[in-house]
Amino acid sequence: REARGQAIHVVTGAGGEGTAEPSAPKPRRFDWPAYLTGGGFVAAASLVAWALDTAFDRVELGMIYLAAVLAAGVMHGLRPALAAATAAFLIYNYFFLAPRYSLAIGSPTDVLTLIVFWAVALATGALAGRVRDQALGSQKRAAGVTTLLAASRTLSGASGKAAVAKALAGDRK
After folding, report:
1. Which residue from 22, 61, 83, 171 has the fewest beta carbons nearer than 10 Å?
2. What pTM does this model have?
3. Which residues lie below 8 Å from residue 103, measured CB to CB, with a gap of 6+?
4. What's the CA angle centered on 144, arms 143 and 146, to 5 degrees?
């Protein structure tokens, strides 16, 4: 209001074109490849768990599934990790807990094991997804700071009003 004839310029990223009105947020689409990758991690964990279960007498197979959920969270974020955790929970119960090939739970300790497994899988998936989202946000902020630094260097190198006006207008000649 008190600029008295001065113009305000917004510096955007390289290649970005400003619009008069901000665009509405885009609705999130269902990312099939992310969910399929998470399912692939759970399938690979199932194969490893099956091999270990047949080779050894008593093996704690839940950790293998937790690694698959963690990988899904790191690579694709929260929702695919939660889907992988649920799939791992069901597959672990169906194939590796007595009675096998049933979703029924044979002993009271297995109920506690499954509940803790699912809770830990959900928590690790959520945390891994959050870390991934924060890393992507940091990359976007770093790109913005780089753009501002380049604009600052251009303006600080300008000598006189004409050079500043030329730099602000984006004339690189």
Report:
1. 22
2. 0.61
3. 90, 93, 94
4. 65
- Cα separation of 74 and 101, whole Å? 31
Output the six-digit token pair for 64.
């293998």
Nearest CA among 101, 80, 82, 83 for reference residue 92: 101
Q: At what angle do helices 78-96 and 62-76 cross, to 10 degrees?
A: 160
> Position of tokens 């297995």?
110
Surface-to-core class of residue 67, CB atoms within 10 Å of its CB (0-12 exposed, 13-18 middle, 19+ buried)? middle
Q: Which residues of 132-160 are buried (b: 16+ CB within 10 A; e: fewer)?
A: beeeeeeeeeeeeeeeeeebeebeeeeee
